[in-house]
Amino acid sequence: MNYPFFFKSYSEEDTISLADIFSFDISEGDIIVLNGNLGAGKTFFIKYTLEHFKIENVTSPTFAIVNEYYGLKKFYHFDFYRINNAQELFDIGFNDYIKDDNAVTFIEWGNLFNELIPKVRKEISITINNDFSRDFYIKKYG
User: Which CATH number belongs to the domain containing residue 74 in this structure?
Assistant: First the structure.
């Protein structure tokens, strides 16, 4: 996958296809940030990306803050939506999670705490269009 990468999804099937393509560009130690409005498809995209790694129990960590998944690779899945301050993330060991070079970390709503996001990362912005299609813009930093 060449970055920056743009993809327009007109259906769930399109998004699943993009998730499959993206899954081939994931390595241990990756930090992947997803931003977009409520209902944009952040968790949906992660769910189908992780299916490639034999993980089928993906759920939104909105209330848990972080979910851990184990399949062909180890994954951490954060959701910053309900976080009130950075200390909440430090209290659950956020820094230890993102320094785990043997895992891939997904962060939904990372834009809420930009100052905590590593400079080296992949960032996926999802925009819902008036026709309900989605624009996926994927950029690599660092």
Answer: 3.40.50.300
Please answer whether residues 34 and 108 qualify as being in contact, where contact means their C-beta atoms are separated by less than 8 angstroms.
yes
Strands (E), 1-128: 5-9, 31-36, 66-70, 74-79, 103-108, 121-128
pLDDT tens readout for residues 86-97: 999 999 999 999
Residue whose token pair is 């990372």? 110
CA distances from 127 to 10, 27, 52, 113, 134 (A): 12, 25, 24, 19, 5
Q: Rounded to whole angstroms, how far apart are CA atoms 122 and 39?
A: 21
| Token pair listed for 21 | 């393509």
State how far the Cα of 139 lies from the Cα of 116, in Å rounded to an integer: 18
Least reliable range by pLDDT among 12-26, 30-44, 51-65 = 51-65
Q: pTM of this prediction?
A: 0.95
- Domain boundaries, position 56: 5-141
